[in-house]
Amino acid sequence: MRRPTIRVAAGLLITLFAFVAPDSARAAFEDLERGARPLALAGAHAALADDAAALFWNPAGMRLLAGGEMMTEVARPFGLGNLDQLAFSVVQPTVIGSFGIGVTTLGKSNYYTERTLRLGVAREVHDRLLLGASIAFLGLDIRPTYGADWGPSLDAGLLYRATDRIRVGAVGRHLNRPSIGDASVEPGRAGKLGIAFDVEQGILLAADLSVEEGFPARLHIGQEVRVHKLLALRAGMAATVGNPQPGYSTTPMLYSLGFGAQLSRARLDYAFMDHPSLGGTHRLGLVLHYGSLLPDQPARFRVRSSRGATTPDQPIDLNRADAKTLDRLPSVGPVTAQRILAYRAENGPFKTVEELLEVKGIGPKTLEKIRPWVYVEEPPQQK
User: 203, exposed or middle or buried, with CB in 10 Å at 0-12, 13-18, 19+?
Assistant: First the structure.
């Protein structure tokens, strides 16, 4: 049953990248990273996108969220005050799909300003495949030369779970080749193909290959290591892997680093990327989780990350899980895992997930965190 799904995913990848043809140059709305975590990973995020920043990186990743999420951030690209960048996004999962809205600004209104309003949607179309799309309204203000105008831009993305430890992502940007006003600004089509690999508990590797009209391909590599349940360290590098076309310079090798600090429903992210010619970029972001978790959220797509390095690769059966597996549930440590096993041994198989409330140490709040990751298999019907 897996082969048809692989063929569908491969066909979608080919179709997505067929739109990215090297026949024009980038003029504005460059692919400046939005989200401190992606920047810390040097842009290796197409297959890792699993928070509110997914709206900007790979809209398919919005379907990975288990509950509502907001992201806000500030950045100063290359240390230039006239290029200050702000971003805000909200993603809300529902039973029919996940929906997102986001805004970004770059620059100051008295010189040069880019403004973006983005709307996105993502759905699970197969137990291994997520699809997403977004439309962005790109506003450009160049005064006094051109004035202000806007144009629509279409992005699309997918996520494919190859194995329990490997996830593949792809995204195409500016697929409709938008044109903005009389300035004839045409952001070039661009695409990314990425892979995320769960090396072992708490360690993630990610790599992206990015292409853009008029520019050589770039390779982005990032690593995330969870050194504590509340702290993840990140680092990455990006380098050109092809020769530039005549008239274009090669972007130098870039290095990045950062961290993510988790506290309850909030995560503070910081990233720094160094540019040998233009200077460094600092980015600070805050991610907030709100609302209740969505039981139907496709947890099997997740690779362990700074958001929850110990969560299982897919929902588990409470009546078959061992202590090591139970220990990977949110807010469940070795002691609680043993209590669950002891309760099961004394009282027999769990009949419902809610029965976990009978286990010492598990209250309503803990149950809500655990619920998306567990289930109780119904006994066979008696004939």
Answer: middle
With tokens 């993840």, the residue in question is: 232
CA distance 11 to 24: 25
Instruction: Give the SS3 label for residue 282.
Output: strand
DSSP per position, 18-59: HT--SSS---SS-----SHHHHHTTT--TTT--STTHHHH-G
Between CA 179 and CA 188 the distance in angstroms is 10
Q: What is 315-375's CATH number?
A: 1.10.150.320
Which CA distances in Å does 326 have to 247, 357, 362?
58, 15, 13
What is the residue extent of each domain of the chain? 2-290, 315-375
Name the amino acid, one letter, at 216: P
Angle at the Cα of 117 (from 113 to 29), degrees rounded to 5? Answer: 45
Q: According to the model, what pLDDT value does residue 89 have?
A: 95
Q: What is the 3-state secondary structure (H, E, C) of 148-173?
A: EEEEEEEEEEEEEECCCCEEEEEEEE
pLDDT of residue 364: 85
Measured in whole angstroms, how far is the alpha carbon of residue 26 from the centre of its chain?
24
Output the pTM of the full model. 0.70
For the domain made up of 2-290, give the CATH fold: Porin (2.40.160)
pLDDT at 56: 92
Residue with tokens 């140490």: 361
> Identical fold at 2-290 and 315-375?
no
Task: Report in angstroms the alpha-carbon separations of 182 from 144, 257, 353.
Answer: 13, 40, 60
Q: Are strands 266-274 and 97-108 parallel, antiparallel or unpaired?
A: unpaired
Assigned token pair, 343: 């309760």
Q: What is the mean pLDDT of each run of 10 residues along the chain (383 residues)?
A: 47 46 42 78 91 93 88 83 85 90 82 87 88 90 72 92 88 86 69 90 90 86 90 93 60 89 88 84 90 50 45 76 83 82 91 90 84 74 42
Q: What angle do CA 305, 301, 4 make, to 5 degrees?
A: 145
| Separation of alpha carbons 196 and 169, rounded Å | 8
